[in-house]
């Protein structure tokens, strides 16, 4: 364990994070929420402020509606587990004496990993595969002369397929921009790669 922690600290000091470290950080909802809030605020915050906002997100209420018990529960988990771990990994700088936390420059390395699948959506790769399969099938049917598909013509199908993929790709791009960490009021809900792809840790649970 000591060797692993030393390696993590060395990598963090060098300004680089391993894929395993990034996924381990993102595998926990509270750590994802922490990154989202810190990047949105873009300045150091107190752990009290952070815990209150995370409690509001977790309970689906406004910040002024957060109960002291809910905030204290988040405060304890952040102070004892998540922030020290993220500080050791070099993801944040946590001053436990002052109770202040701030992002480090390594946050930029997380951006490409936030193009993840929402809990209620299918992967976009599968969507594009299905869309391409349908378009191919329609063109094949038209090529065989089946009516009314054949009446559109080759140029018409090429134009229709091009416009369809352009429209879908435009929506995909706009959607992803809204889902980037720190870009919206509420953090995006995502699914993280299966647990067997990252090392299971005792603080990987949300509770």
Give the helix/strand layout:
Layout: H1 2-13, H2 19-26, H3 29-41, E1 45-46, H4 47-59, H5 68-89, E2 92-95, E3 100-103, H6 124-143, H7 153-179
Antiparallel strand pairs: 1-3, 2-3
Helix pairs in contact: 3-4, 4-5, 6-7
Any overview of this molecule?
The chain has about 210 residues and is mainly alpha-helical. The protein has two domains: about 110 residues, Arc Repressor Mutant, subunit A (Orthogonal Bundle); about 55 residues. It has seven helices and three strands. It has a three-stranded antiparallel beta sheet with strand order 1-3-2. A hairpin with a 4-residue loop joins β2 and β3. α4 crosses α5 and α6 packs antiparallel against α7. The two termini are about 25 Å apart. The N terminus and C terminus are likely disordered.
Q: Supply the CATH class of the largest domain.
A: Mainly Alpha
Spatial extent as radius of gyration: 23 Å
Cα distance spanning the termini? 23 Å
- What is the H-and-E element order? HHHEHHEEHH
How does the major sheet shape up?
Answer: 3 strands, antiparallel
Number of strands: 3
By DSSP (H or I, 4+ residues per run), the number of helices equals 7
Low-confidence stretches at least 5 residues in length (pLDDT < 50)? 1-7, 190-207
Q: What is the count of distinct domains? A: 2
Average residue-wise pLDDT? 75
Pfam family, one: DUF7344
InterPro entries: DUF7344
Region (Disordered): 180-207
Protein name: DUF7344 domain-containing protein
Question: In a few lines, what is going on in this structure?
Answer:
The chain has 207 residues and is mostly helical.
């Amino acid at each position: 364990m000591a060797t692993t922690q030393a390696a993590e600290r060395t990598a963090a000091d060098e300004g680089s994070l391993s894929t395993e470290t990034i996924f381990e950080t993102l595998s926990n909802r509270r750590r994802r929420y922490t990154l989202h809030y810190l990047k949105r605020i873009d300045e150091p915050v107190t752990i009290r402020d952070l815990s209150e906002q995370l409690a509001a997100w977790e309970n689906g209420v406004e910040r002024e509606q957060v109960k002291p018990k809910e905030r204290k529960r988040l405060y304890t988990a952040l102070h004892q587990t998540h922030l020290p771990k993220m500080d050791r990994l070099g993801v944040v700088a946590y001053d436990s004496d002052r109770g202040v936390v701030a992002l480090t420059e390594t946050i930029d390395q997380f951006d490409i990993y936030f193009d993840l699948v929402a809990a209620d959506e299918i992967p976009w790769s599968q969507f594009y595969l299905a869309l391409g399969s349908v378009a191919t099938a329609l063109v094949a049917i038209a090529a065989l002369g089946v009516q009314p598909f054949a009446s559109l013509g080759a140029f018409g199908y090429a134009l229709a397929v091009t416009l369809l993929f352009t429209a879908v790709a435009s929506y995909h791009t706009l959607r992803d921009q809204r889902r980037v960490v720190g870009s919206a009021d509420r953090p995006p809900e995502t699914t993280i790669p299966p647990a067997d792809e990252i090392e299971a840790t005792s603080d990987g649970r949300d509770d």
